[in-house]
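Hi C.,

You asked whether I'd gotten around to modeling the 311-residue construct. I have! Everything is below, sequence then structure, no commentary in between.
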Amino acid sequence: MTWMTKAKPYNVLNAYYRDIFGSKVFKVSLNGGFTCPNRDGTAGVGGCTFCSVEGSGDFAGDPQKPLALQFDAVCGRMRQKWPDAKYIAYFQANTNTYDSPARLRQLYDEALNLDDNIVGLAIATRCDALDADIYDLLAEINERTHLQVELGLQTIHPDTAETINRGHDLDCFTTAARELVRRNINTVVHIINGLPGETKQDMLATVDYINSLHVQGIKIHMLHVMKHTAMGHAYLKKPFPILSRDEYVDIVCDQIERLDPSIIIHRLTGDAPDSLLLAPAWTRKKFVVMNEIDKMLRRRGTHQGIRFQQK
């Protein structure tokens, strides 16, 4: 089954949600106050060089506030415009399986009970913050609600992974993805285009690898170079090449064409707080970027998976 349209010749997340839940669905970003094994010394220190102080959760809730207040702060506006909408509670900031199973269970259950219209749970994490007990917990939750586990990959290339201080190798990621898929847990992989030193072929190879995992979804991001990050400090001292908007659109369209046609596209570009963004400036116009991707695919007369090769 596909969730493509003439206007968007790729699997659209909103269409997928409407098919499953019968209504508009929003992800509500929550902050559970987690840290990260790549910050506290377990896997590394300093975190990934592109990662903000907020742990890539710049639009998540305030960790000093209870989950209920975080949720209501976001949903108040949405309820006025979409009174029949449903919600997915989304633990976004830092590494959201990086705690004891007991505390995780308590937090996930609290989130699922915040509102009668919550229909699922999304958990962003790292492959090195998953173990047998946590897999079992996630499998249990998957039986009770619509669960999505988001894994940050960014790239398959070891030199780049070292440059960005990712803190784990590809084997670790592969094991985690396979363990999640084996338990029928919807798994969404994050990648970043435009990482320092990577070529277009490098970025396409990352998508080819994702095809081999049989995951449910993908999030494609453009690299944001931000203030107060290790990468931002390096960029200010010695700027490195950044993809132009046209280059990014071309690469994403090629990735879509190669992407397994069963994979749902959760994101085609990303956001960075305007006050923190150093480069590229064109990412401030997210909807323009998305429209340019759609226009190029229509010009090509192509669609998701047209160049997919089963392996």
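If it helps when you're writing up: The beta strands are 25-30, 86-91, 118-125, 146-154, 186-193, 217-222, 225-226, 264-267, 277-279.

Thanks,
B.
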